[in-house]
Amino acid sequence: MTLAFPYRFALDIFGEDGTNLGTVAAKRDWEPAHEWTRFYFQRRGQLSLDSNGGASTVIPLWEHTLGEPYCRGYRVQIQTPNGRPVASDFPNTHFRDFAAVIASSFVAKKKLREGEFYTYMVVAHPAPPETQTTGGLSVANASPRVPAKDASIRDFLARATPSGVIDIDDMPVFVSRRVLDEAAEQTHAEEGTETGGILIGVLGRDTIAGEIFAEITAQIPAEHTSGSNVKLTFTPETWAAADAALRLRRRGEIYLGYWHSHPVRAWCKGKACTLEAQKSCHLAKDFFSADDEAVMRAAFPRAYSIAIVANDTAFTGLTFSMFGNREGTTQPRGFYVLEETVHGA
Amino acid sequence: MANAPTANTVGELVHEMIGKMNLPRNDSSGAPLTYQARSEREGRHLNASERIGDALQRGDRLTLQPNIDAGSGC
User: Which residue in chain A is spatially nearest to B22 when comparing CA positions?
Assistant: First the structure.
C-alpha cells in the first residue's frame, strides 16, 4: 500500500554558532516505519491480518514550542474499516543518518569545518498538489496476508530458554537449537569467511492472548554466494535455490529472515587487536552493519522478519545476536531457543 | 500487476516495479542495487532486454531477487 505525503519534509542544518547553513529536502526510507506500524496494530488485533490496511499517510508532528513548520517527529497513520485511524509516532532521530550525510556534503562545500558540531531541525511544508496521471503500471500485493496459524505460545515458552534481552514489545521469536547448531557448524567450516543462510519457519497466533509469534524451524544454507572475511554476496541464484528448497519441504513454511556470520577473530587478527581491545570492541557482538540492514530491507522487508548474526570471536565461544524491526529501525533483540521443535521437524 | 506495456523490456518493468513496491534502489553506500525477475512459470531469471510481450503471459508470477551484500564494513 502506497504511503501518501501531504507534507514534504526537509532538514535545516545549523552550525556550531547556530547559523542556519541551509535546508535540504529529506530523503528517507519510510517503509520500515510503515511496516512496523501496520504489524504493531495487526498484533493487537486492530488491523486485519488479511490485508495491508487502508490508506496510509505520513504527517508531521509539530514542535510544541516553535510550532509549524518545525517538527518534533512524524506520524504514520493507517485508515481502518471503522473509519478510526491507527497511528505510530516516530522521533526526529530517524533523520540522524541523513543529517550526517548532509553534514558531510556541507564539509565538502566548506559550509561546515571538518569535526565542527552541528545540529538539525526537521521541518515540513504542505506538498504541492500532485498531477494525477492515468494509465501506467499498477501493482497490487498478491499475498498481503500475515500467515499466522492458531497456536499456543505457552507450549513454546515451556520448552524455550531466553537468549539476550527480551523486550516485551517485540514479537516473540523461537529458534530451534538445531538451526543454531547448523549455523555454528557452517560458520566454523568457513572460518575466516562470511557465510550464511536463509531462515524459514512459521508464524503463530496465540489462541488465548492473540499475540503473534515466530518459530524458526530451519535454515537453508545460502548457495551461489561469494564470501570474503568482510562481505557475503547473495545473488539472484541464491534466492532461487532457497525458493526451490522451501518448496521441496512442503511444510507451509515462509521466509522469516536470514543469518550470516561475522568472522570477528579474522577481523581482529588483520588489525592486530589485543585481546583486551577485542573484548570491548563494538564489532564483537550485537553489531549489524548498514549492508546487513540493506539485505533485510531488500529481501526481508516484513516487520516480522529477523536476522541472526553468528559472532565468531577469539575470546569466547560462538555467540548469536538477533536483530529486528522495532519502531521503524533495525535493533538488536532477544529471542528464545527451542530445544526441540514443538510440532516436529 | 496490470497495464504493463508489452513492447517494454523486462528491465523497464523491473525498474517500475521496484518503485511501486517501495523496494530500495540503492545499497547502503548509494550504489544501485540489481534485481532480477524470476519467472515462476518458466523457472528462470528473465533477461532485462527481453520484451514483456515475449517473456510474460497473463497470470504469470514474478519474483524480484536482488544481488546484494551483507558485510561488516570493517
Answer: A31
